[in-house]
Amino acid sequence: FGSDFYQGIAISPTPALSEESGRLLAKQAVDFDGHTDKVLDSKLVVLPTVQGRAATYSLAYEVRLKLERDPARGREPALWHLYIDAMTGDVLKKMNEIRYDTVSGIVSGYIKPRYITDPDEIHPFADEYVDVAGYGQATTDQNGLYSLEAGTGGMRTLSLMLKGRWAEILDNSGPEAAITDSCAPGSEKDILWTSPWSAPSERNAYYHSWIVHNWIKTVEPAFTGMDRETEIFVDAPNYCNAYWDGSGITIGAGSGSCLNLGLFCDVLYHEYGHGIVDMQYRPYAPSDAMHEAFA
């Protein structure tokens, strides 16, 4: 027996969404069939999310759903346990309580450790989402390891974008980075981000955004201003600059007078630093000079 004690929970207890809306969103997240499947229960709770010594809190609907086996669609039975954000409708947590074989592996990628002239190195991609069709989503740990229970028999489709807990990488010059692969339950499938599934600037942005987010959490664990999927736009064409716009980052692809700024880690660190300063000082703001100095 055991318990966890949380203090200093300062969130509104009034949900923006109804309990019925929470149930509906949970059903949509798991391919719920109204003819055969059942809602076991639902209730309003406060969901803590812990990182290091800091905890953040969300008002959420806890929903448990029972899904029956459907051989025609190749669907295994499931007992889904979900937490739906009662303010935004986002799926905060999703677990299948029926235990099966897992699909697992390590996600990594080629990146430039500092500058465009550095040789490529392979590093793990932490906190990245790995979707397993029909079975949910895993998140890689700090070593790039993912693992998700995925039934038995057959093959499972894995889908990844350069998107995770702390960043979503978007490309101004073409389609977003994406990988689709397959894996049998009970086996391992390592994923390596390289060309042609991703551009060097996309990989660099994902990896180094994790580095700088991890750094600020080490320096100030209680700071939560950047604890979100920050949008980072890379390869802005014919652009020799980068900026923070209040919610995300844009990085230029370069032009005749400069190289691709997405391949210089300190450019991203600086713009991410503007985000940290912005979120730390809101609703106030330091002067432009202070913003530049702090970033």
The percent range for strand residues is: 35-45%
Could you give the order of the helices and strands? HEEEEEEEEEEEEEHEEEHH
Instruction: Assign a percent range to the helix content.
Output: 10-25%
Uncertain runs: none
Envelope shape: globular
How far apart are the first and last residues' alpha carbons, in Å?
A: 46 Å
Rg, nearest Å: 21 Å
Give me the number of helical elements: 4
Explain how this protein is built.
With 295 residues, this protein is α+β, with helices and mostly antiparallel strands. It contains four helices and 16 strands. The mean pLDDT is 91. Strand 3 and strand 4 form a beta hairpin. Strands 1-2-3-4 form a four-stranded antiparallel β-sheet, with helices on one face. Strands 5, 6, 9 and 13 form a four-stranded mixed β-sheet that branches. It has a four-stranded antiparallel β-sheet with strand order 8-7-10-12, with no helix packed on it. It has helices at 19-29, 200-219, 265-281, 288-294, and strands at residues 38-51, 54-67, 78-85, 91-96, 102-111, 121-124, 129-132, 136-139, 145-149, 156-161, 167-171, 178-183, 191-193, 230-236, 242-244, 248-252. The protein is globular and about 65 Å long. Helix 2 (200-219) crosses helix 3. The chain is 19% helix and 35% strand. The protein starts with 18 loop residues before the first helix and ends with a helix.
